[in-house]
From TrEMBL:
Pfam families: Sulfotransfer_2. Residues 385-406 are annotated as: Disordered. The gene is UST. This is Uronyl 2-sulfotransferase. Signal peptide: none annotated. Keywords: Glycoprotein, Golgi apparatus, Membrane, Signal-anchor, Transferase, Transmembrane, Transmembrane helix. Residues 385-399 have a biased composition (Acidic residues). GO terms for molecular function: 3'-phosphoadenosine 5'-phosphosulfate binding; chondroitin 2-sulfotransferase activity; dermatan 2-sulfotransferase activity. Its main location: Golgi. One of its GO terms (biological process) is dermatan sulfate proteoglycan biosynthetic process.
Length: 406
């Protein structure tokens, strides 16, 4: 009983020198009285028991915290593990330490940020490693009603584990509906480049040929298809204005209606979510390093991804995507785009910084490049990828399967 009363004064009672630093300093008298005990180091069985009990309470508490929300266990483990990683080799062997194996992974892929390439790789990997790749047939619905969220989460949660679920969908809060929060991954790219890529893709399609755009957007009027990009921007067409330009952040912010309003609130929430729920948000401009980190973090899903990616057999796919009728907007129009996308850029730079930090922890060099005075458009990515959709557009991935089945 007596021991319990001492508890609030600080957990380290058996070591009196700890108490003056702690919250409620005892009176000078009691301090003096207790000092002589020190040389004897008198651990009674009760002291020991008390110590262990405190430890147990702490452990149970932390377990309880983890069970009732909070970041997924895997992310906590990973962070602790990364904190101690110091090796400095470049593309060296993976660390020998074994990470726990998350069996629920969600890739809520952002449109036109290389996800087609990654999905193609995932199809190959899922056969190789025997995980359950769950893709969705719905490609044009990123925001869901509460009921739809609940249903989808229930559906995902019942998938056979280990699974990797992927869909163009804004962040889903599993714990809000009593599910296990999965580990999230994603890839983004420079916002203006993403926008332009989508702008021209909607109009002129991709490598599948000239006629393809007629199949893709048959109802698009000619004026719209041949709308000059500068005119679209300078004349404030909806396609080139907010909220349509506020595209990447909602994928990380979530399903809350405010997540779609360009502003601080959505930005901050998106950043918070990146920290709490995303194992990795990569940068398309550095896709090889993204794949390398995925291989290190999630070997049960991504082991060998880099060699598949570099395999000439699969590489061939890369040059099927031809650049179509792209024109670069005028510097004036670009400035306006930057201005309209300032939150998107703040988010992009934040993610990029985190990504580089992670790379450094793994001893990967980030090629520090001075920011260009003018943005460099259409930086050739290792595998030039064109996402087939905007939010409202369809995303047919049948061709992927066709190629894969060859
Ligand atoms: C990392 O280092 C800290 C302090 O050195 C230590 O407490 C922790 O257990 C270490 N983590 C791992 C995973 O080794
Ligand atoms: C749930 O999953 C099943 C098969 O896994 C699928 O047929 C069904 O359409 C899914 N429902 C929703 C709402 O996604
Ligand atoms: C997810 O839901 C939980 C429980 O309702 C809530 O505490 C948490 O803040 C939510 N997280 C996000 C990012 O919305
Ligand atoms: C694709 O690459 C192959 C060899 O790398 C080359 O022969 C072919 O001409 C390329 N095709 C296109 C459309 O660039
Ligand atoms: C999504 O596409 C389907 C057909 O593929 C269409 O019926 C539906 O209306 C579309 N939904 C939205 C929100 O655009």
């Amino acid at each position: 009983m007596k021991k319990k009363q001492q508890h609030p004064g600080g957990g380290a009672d058996p070591w009196p020198h700890g108490t003056p630093l702690g919250g409620a300093p005892p009176g000078l008298g009691s301090w003096k009285r207790r000092v002589p005990l020190l040389p004897f180091l008198r651990f009674s069985l009760r002291d020991y028991g008390f110590c262990m009990a405190t430890l147990l309470v702490f452990c149970l508490g932390s377990l309880f915290y983890q069970l009732s929300g909070g970041p997924p266990r895997f992310l906590l483990d990973l962070r602790q593990y990364l904190g101690n990683s110091t090796y400095l080799d470049d593309h060296g062997p993976p660390p020998s330490k074994v990470l726990p194996f998350p069996s629920q992974v969600v890739y809520n892929r952002v449109g036109k940020c290389g996800s087609r390439t990654v999905v193609l790789l995932l199809r190959i990997l899922s056969e190789k490693h025997g995980f359950n790749l769950v893709t969705s047939d719905i490609h044009n619905k990123t925001r869901l009603t509460k009921n739809e969220q609940m249903e989808l989460i229930k559906n995902i949660s019942t998938a056979e584990q280990p699974y990797l679920f992927t869909r163009h969908v804004h962040f889903l809060n599993f714990s809000r509906f009593g599910g296990d929060q999965p580990v999230y991954i994603n890839i983004i790219r420079d916002p203006v480049n993403r926008f332009l890529s989508n702008y021209f893709f909607r109009r002129f399609g991709d490598w599948r040929g000239e006629q393809n755009h007629m199949i893709r957007t048959p109802s698009m009027r000619q004026e719209e298809r041949y709308l000059d990009i500068n005119e679209c921007i300078l004349e404030n067409y909806p396609e080139c204005s907010n909220p349509r330009l506020f595209y990447i952040i909602p994928y990380f912010c979530g399903q809350h209606p405010r997540c779609r309003e360009p502003g601080e609130w959505a930005l901050e929430r998106a950043k918070l979510n990146v920290n709490e729920n995303f194992l990795l948000v990569g940068i398309l401009e550095e896709l090889e390093d993204v794949l390398l980190l995925l291989e290190r973090f999630l070997p049960h899903y991504f082991k060998g991804v880099l060699s598949i990616y570099k395999d000439p057999e699969h590489r061939k796919l890369g040059n099927m995507t031809v650049t179509v009728k792209k024109t670069v907007p005028s510097p004036e129009a670009v400035q306006i785009l930057y201005q309209r996308m300032r939150y998107e850029y703040e988010f992009y730079h934040y993610v990029k910084e985190q990504f580089h930090l992670l790379k450094r922890k793994f001893g990967l060099k980030s090629h520090v490049s001075r920011p260009p005075l003018r943005p460099q458009f259409f930086i050739p990515t290792p595998l030039e990828t064109e996402e087939p959709i905007d939010d409202e557009e369809q995303d047919d991935e049948k061709w992927l399967e066709d190629i894969y089945k060859r």
